[in-house]
Amino acid sequence: MKILQICHKPPYPLIDGGCIAIKNISEGLIQKFGSIKLLTISTLKHPFIENEYPKNFIKKSQLEHVFVDTKLNIVDAFSNLVTYDSYNISRFFSPDFNALIIKTLKSATFDVILLESLFTTPYIQTLRSYSSAKVILRSHNLEHIIWKRLANETQNPAKKIYLNLLSNQLKNYELNVINDVDGIACISLEDEKKYKELNPNIPLACMPFGIDTNNYVPIKRELKENKIIKFFHLGAMDWKPNLEGVGWLIQNVWPKIMEHIPNSELHLAGKNMPNWLINGDYKGIINHQKVDDAVGFMNDMDIMLVPLLSAGGIRVKIIEGMALAKPIISTSIGAEGIEHNENLKIANNEDEFLEQALSLVNNPKETLKLGQSAKQHVSSFYNNERIVNELIEFCSNSI
After folding, report:
1. Where does the chain show beta strands of DSSP type E?
2. Is 35 within 8 Å of 60 (Cβ atoms)?
3. Closest CA to 247 of 218, 217, 211, 285
4. What is each CA distance from 376 to 273, 369, 373, in whole angstroms?
5. Domain locations in the chain?
6. Chain centroid, CA 282 distance in Å
7. I need a surface site. Which of 2, 98, 107, 123 has the fewest CB within 10 A?
8. Structural contact between residues 253 and 350, judged by C-beta atoms closer than 8 angstroms
9. How far apart, in whole angstroms, are the C-alpha atoms of residue 149 and residue 128?
10. What is the pTM of this model?
11. What is the pLDDT of residues 112-140, one digit of tens each?
């Protein structure tokens, strides 16, 4: 099977969950077929850095990239509101990248074209014009739901109106895109259900984020009364749901935890920390900003906190934390798409976060079991080789 993978960001460096998700599929497909063709947009936020790539990846993926300026342009954003176009999506369209796609399709034939995320769908018309390959959308999120949740959470009336407009534009766009592709590989069961509600006839499959569990070796840490309990959050802080969630965590949740668990620290890590978070004087909070070794950082911590209030899809960092046998407290939204009965704790307000934190700290043996159960769950359900095989089967059935 000849596969063309089109990405809205380079797979390396692995600076966020989206990059990791793309990389894992790319490497899995290369392992199965020997090579693929990968075209990617690079941006200021996600630049192409050649020396970040492992040996042979660029060769085996036949990777080519084009820089696209996706920075927010206020004039364009406003004009798109007036014309009901989705600026969130249209800013990823580039004549230069479109030309690269045309050149690629003229020089080779493909069985399947895999579109990574909604942000690559502006090129579907070009794909249909120059190729007879089946087009499969690998949906990382249902984007309109993220913006709708952000609108619901904000207290600013003008911002609420604007975010609702964005959400409606994205929903209309996603409804149209569903009819333009040959199948959708969703990243969570929740997203699969929502796509079915939008269009019950589109071929769908759930292909969650997969990992190579050999890369996640946990270091055992025991919770003890006489030592510091290290709570932590790890996530890119230029993603609005993370920024919103961490702000809520600091203002509403953390003071309660500090009051009842005084021997605790909150460790924050992630790229593009805002100045108010870097320079703020917050009791018991240590800000690491960007960390080079996410696995090492998590292994040095005790309890993961996932305070997401407005996201969708599946949280890569939760899967990685589970693979490292970390006990996790998450909102229901943060844990969407993840079986969590015996694998993590759910808390949807500050009192529930405190209750779950106290439960974990006061019951170290049960907490250890929770982490081990989470690790076993990831090994069984998020094994990258199994997920790649299922994706290949889904693509084969579409041909």
Report:
1. 3-7, 37-42, 64-67, 112-116, 134-139, 183-186, 204-206, 229-234, 264-269, 285-289, 303-306, 328-330, 345-346
2. yes
3. 285
4. 33, 11, 5
5. 3-210+383-398, 214-381
6. 28
7. 107
8. yes
9. 34
10. 0.77
11. 999 999 999 999 999 999 999 999 999 98
Buried b (16+ CB within 10 A) or exposed e, 329-361: bbbebbbbbbebeebbbbbeebeebbbbbeebb
CATH superfamily of 3-210+383-398: Glycogen Phosphorylase B; (3.40.50.2000)
- CA nearest neighbour of 384 among 372, 396, 392: 392
**CA dist 138 → 54, 123, 233 (Å):** 24, 14, 27
Reading the block at residue 134, the tokens are: 């089946």
Give the CATH fold of the 214-381 domain. Answer: Rossmann fold (3.40.50)
Partners of 289 in the beta sheet? 269
**Cα–Cα distance for residue pair 367/390, rounded to 1 Å:** 33
Cβ density class 39-74: b for 16+ within 10 Å, e for less:
bbbbbeebebeeeebeeebeebbebbbbebebeeee
pLDDT in tens, 230-284: 999 999 898 888 999 999 999 999 999 999 999 999 999 999 999 999 888 899 9
Q: Are strands 64-67 and 37-42 parallel, antiparallel or unpaired?
A: parallel
3-210+383-398 matches 214-381 in fold: yes
| Dist. CA 327–CA 363, nearest whole Å | 12
- Integer Cα distance of 184 and 205 in angstroms: 7
Is residue 148 within 8 A of residue 309, CB to CB? The reply is: no
Tell me the sheet residues that pair with 206: 186
Token pair belonging to 34: 């020997």
Cα gap 321→345, rounded to integer Å: 13
